[in-house]
Structure formats: C-alpha cells, structure tokens
UniProtKB/TrEMBL annotation:
Protein name as annotated: DNA 3'-5' helicase
Keyword set, alphabetical order: ATP-binding, Helicase, Hydrolase, Isomerase, Nucleotide-binding
PANTHER family xrefs: GENERAL TRANSCRIPTION AND DNA REPAIR FACTOR IIH HELICASE SUBUNIT XPB (PTHR11274:SF0), RAD25/XP-B DNA REPAIR HELICASE (PTHR11274)
Coiled-coil stretches noted in the UniProt entry, renumbered to this chain: none
Family note: Belongs to the helicase family. RAD25/XPB subfamily.
Source organism (scientific name): Fervidicoccus fontis
Length: 561
C-alpha cells in the first residue's frame, strides 16, 4: 500500500472467528483482546500499508464478516477515506493497476466498463486502451491520480518530420476536428478521398512514435510508400512489422493479424495509434489491439464505419467516436471524386431456377416458422437442428439467386457495351466458382483470396498498365485495391450491405477529367436482391450514423435507372 494510509480505527467483532478470518484481520489490525463475546481490534496503518491493504481491501474483508462488525465502523472507515480522495496508478505486466486511497462507493458506477476488480489481488485492473477514458472520468470526479507508472504522456519521434504533401480542404477539416477531440476519434471518408494522407499529415503534426494498423499486406506496403512520398522521414524511421520482417521503428506499420498476436510487445512503445479500415476493429480478437495499446492518441480511418452487427458502437470508447465524415456525393460536388451513376440491371430466373426457388422458399418458410434470420442463427448456434436446416436452405436460396445463369448473359452484354466505349471494368462477386466462370467466359484475369501473391501482383500491374480491360475479383478486392483509372464496376453477387456497396463503389471514384463512373448492379427480379437494392438507397449517411439498427454506411446515389 502506498500514498495516503488507511485511518486508525478501533472496532469489535461479535461472536467467534475462524482461524483464517482472524489471521486476515491481523494483516491490517492489532489484536486488543476479548471482552465478553466480542473480539477487540484496532486498524494499524503501518501494518496495512506493509501488507497491501487499502480502504477497498479492508471493506472487502469486512463485507465477508457481515453482521459481525457494526455498520458504524464501516461508515467511519469510508468517511475518513473520502478525505484522501486519490488513487495510485501503477503498471503491472500488460495491465494498469489502480489502488484507491479512498472509498470509491457509488462512484464505481461511473467507472463501469473501464475498471475491473480483481478480488484475489484486491486491486482494480485497467486495460491500456481504456486508461485515457479512466483518467478523464476520475478527473471529472475530482479524484487525484498519483502516477507511478513511469510512462511518458507522449513518446516523441527521435527527429521531427515534415509533411511535404498538400492537404485538400476537407482533409484539413478532418485533422482539425480530430485535434479538437483530444487527438482521438474516427474519420470516415470515402474510398479514393485520401484517408491515408490524413493519417500521414497527423503523424507529421504530432511527431510522436506511431503504430499504424493496416488490414492487408498490400495496404501495409502502400502506407510505407506514401509515408516516404509525403514526408521528410528517412527510411530508417519507418518499418514493417509483419511476417518474417518484424522490425520495430519509430513509425511502425503492422497488420491486424500480426498486431493481435504481438500486442504485448507493441503495447507501450507508441503514443499514437492509427487504425486503417477501422470498421474491422470491433471483431472480438482485433478489439484486443485497441484495448492492449496504451497510445493516448488514436485515429481510426474508414469509408464504412457502421457495421450491420451493431458493433460499430464499440469503436466509440475504443477510438473516440466519429469526429468527421463526408459522403461520396459531397466530395463529388466539391470536385474531389468522379461523378457516378448507379444502374440496376434486372434479370429473371430461368424456368428451372424459378421452380427450384419456389420449392426452397416453401421449405424455408416451414422451417423458419416466421422467425427472423438472426433468431434462427442464434438458435442454430445453440444446437437447434431445425434452425440449422433453415439456415442451410436459406444459403441455397441465396446462392441460387446470386448464381443465376441469366446474370452471366447480362454481364456479357454490359462488358461488350463498355469495352466498346474504351472502359476499364471491375467485376465483383462473392463466389470463387462464379468468378472463374465469368473469367473463362470473358477471357479475363481473375483474382481471389487464394491467388498466389506473385501472380496477383503481376495481374494487377498488367491491369493498371492497360488503358482498357476487365478484371474479375471476389471479396479480396473490396478493400485495398487501388486502380485509379477504373471507371466501371459490375456487381454480380454481394452481401447486400451498404458497407460493401460503398467500398466497391469507391474503387471507381478516383477523379479524372471528363470521367463519369458507372456501377451496374445485376439483380434477379422479384427476389430479396431487389428488396435489398431498394432498401440500401433509402437512408442518407446522417441517418445511418445516428441509426441504432447497426445499418451500414450508405449514400444517396446521383441517379438510378
């Protein structure tokens, strides 16, 4: 026990004590003898301090002896402790430890979700990523923090670096909003709007040791390349922490998977944390990164912050909330992104597909019995076989719609028309087999998650170098794919979420004189695809950000036909 000591208070214990309870009382009290059926003690502040007993620890012991110790003794202890009004902050292993020199009492409710009480060790534990929140709340309550961690408030770079690029007006606005929020928060900007540039400008302005988390290896390499291009940082100041090459530098770039596995090694080395594609962070294991990093300054970047599962709300305590956002349409109007058109192409199921579709719908309806999809999922996870069978039928229904043969005919027609106009086309699907089928039909290259890295690199380089052409991609291309002169996208199959749609649209919006981007959605008439496309266009970004339903970020499209 350190800092202010517990007060010396005489007290009596009624009845008999077990040897274990008696020995524990002696760790912070002196025995004064017996009087009738009562045992007399006095709290010894020196002994309590030596054995690590503060007010909270003594209250914990007294609570186990409920009824044997008069309530007025506990009240006196709490009253004396309130006068001390401070906590000691220490660092033990991967956690911060809070040792109250006072009775927290009802104030604990205001610290819920930030502190965790360890009954065995009789201390409060705080994850590194929650420390800033804790300090803010304690300060608001007028509680003094005695910092014994030895950690600096910030960790400066060994040399100042200059930002040599040029910020657009909205990028400057974003950094200003982030700084006004205590250098914490999420910046939501569309794909192609220069989120990476915002992060790099922030690094130069703060000049603090920085850990950047990228979602893919390609994005990791893009960050390093951009830092070298847009700052005066010498090469030795920047390093990847990934795969076989794990070098810690003042500016370190890692991936979600690697940072998650090495979080204890990274935890206290950086005072600025930048998380790219931050919508992935609330996933259970990736959340460990934000909770495990001490970094008091943190920035999240994403085109699509809000998640369908509602977990985007977890970003607010982890990263600081959404401090700035712009929709694609807003940046189109400012001339920073290419104007775009969304065109719905409807096809019908073949007679055989329609027959199978109606059969599956009937089976699904009987199995689901009116339950929503999430309820079926929950029941299946608990071992409900009927619910599991319903989900299996649902999956078959979805694939039947997504892989309708007439979609391929529509793809061929759109591609022929667009190639005739000299367009550069990305074709999006969820399924490897469908991607390969389309690639074979069009004689076009295909990229999937299993494409060997060297082949992937060669295919992308050839596609980028060509003024026109077609590339077929699965979800591997939803994030981190940068081909600036692509102007046409064709969605054959997707999740139906706004987030995925915005990501895919973003691949087309790099500005170019005279460019108008076109996104074709090929959907099956009279199915859930049609309903999803209609629903996705209803909400504006403002409505989505404030939505409690966990919908994905969307946008108002300029045109639909």
């Amino acid at each position: 026990m350190s800092g202010n000591r517990v007060p010396s208070i005489r007290y009596r214990v009624k009845g008999w004590l077990s040897r274990e309870d008696f020995d524990e009382l002696l760790k912070f009290s002196d025995y004064l003898g017996r009087e009738g059926l009562e045992i007399k003690f006095v709290i010894n502040p020196e002994k309590a301090e030596k054995n690590g007993y503060g007010v909270e620890e003594i209250r914990e012991v007294f609570s186990k002896l409920s009824g044997k110790i008069p309530q007025r003794v506990i009240e006196v202890l709490e009253s004396e402790a309130r006068k001390q009004n401070s906590v000691v902050l220490e660092l033990e292993g991967a956690n911060f430890v809070i040792r109250p020199q006072m009775f927290l009492g009802e104030r604990l409710s205001a610290l819920k979700g930030v502190l965790r009480y360890d009954r065995k060790r009789r201390v409060f534990l705080v994850k590194p990523g929650m420390l800033s929140q804790l300090l803010e709340r304690l300060s608001a309550m007028g509680i003094t923090v005695i910092d014994r961690t030895g950690l600096p408030a910030v960790q400066p770079l060994p040399q100042r670096i200059e930002f040599t690029g040029k910020l657009r007006d909205y990028q400057s606005e974003a950094i200003r909003a982030w700084e006004e929020n205590g250098r914490r928060g999420v910046i939501a900007l569309p794909t192609g709007s220069g989120k990476t540039v915002v992060g790099i400008a922030a690094i130069a302005r703060l000049s603090e040791r920085t850990l950047i988390i990228a979602y893919t290896k390609e994005q990791l390499l893009q960050w390093i390349e951009k830092i070298e291009e847009l700052t005066s940082a010498p090469k030795h100041l920047v390093a990847p922490f990934y795969s076989e090459e794990k070098r810690l530098a003042p500016i370190t770039v890692s991936t979600y998977q690697t940072a998650y596995r090495y979080i204890e090694e990274l935890a206290f080395r950086f005072s600025l944390l930048i998380v790219d594609e931050v919508h992935h962070l609330p996933a259970d294991k990736f959340k460990t990164i934000a909770l495990g990093m001490y970094s008091p300054h943190r920035m999240g970047l994403s085109a699509t912050v809000v998640r369908e599962d509602g977990k985007h709300t977890e970003l607010f305590p982890l990263m600081g909330g959404i401090v700035y956002y712009k929709t694609p349409q807003e940046l189109v109007e400012r001339g920073y992104l290419a104007p775009f058109v969304n065109q719905i192409v409807k096809v019908d199921l073949s007679e055989e597909e329609r027959r199978r579709y109606e059969e599956l719908k009937k089976v699904y309806k009987a199995l689901a019995q009116g339950m929503q999809f999430q309820e079926l999922l929950s029941r299946a996870q608990r071992g409900d076989q009927k619910a599991a069978q319903a989900l299996k039928v649902h999956s078959e229904l979805k694939q039947l719609i997504h892989k309708s043969e007439r979609k391929l005919e529509a793809v061929r027609r759109v591609v022929e028309k667009e190639l005739g106009s000299g367009s550069k086309i990305l074709i999006f699907t969820q399924y490897v087999d469908q991607a390969e089928k389309i690639g074979e039909m069009l004689g076009a290259p295909v990229l999937t998650g299993s494409t060997e890295p060297k082949l992937r690199k060669r295919v992308l380089e050839e596609f980028k170098a060509s003024p026109t052409g077609v590339l077929v991609i699965t979800t591997v291309g939803d994030e981190g794919l940068d081909v600036p002169d692509v102007n046409v996208g064709i969605v054959v199959a997707g999740t139906g979420s706004r987030r995925q749609f915005v990501q895919r649209l973003g691949r087309l919006l790099r500005p170019k004189p005279g460019k108008i981007a076109r996104m074709y959605e090929i959907i099956v008439r009279g199915t859930e695809e049609e309903a999803l496309a209609r629903r996705r266009k209803k909400l504006s970004l403002d409505e989505l950000v404030s939505s409690e339903k966990g919908e994905d970020l969307g946008l108002a499209l300029t045109k639909s036909s």
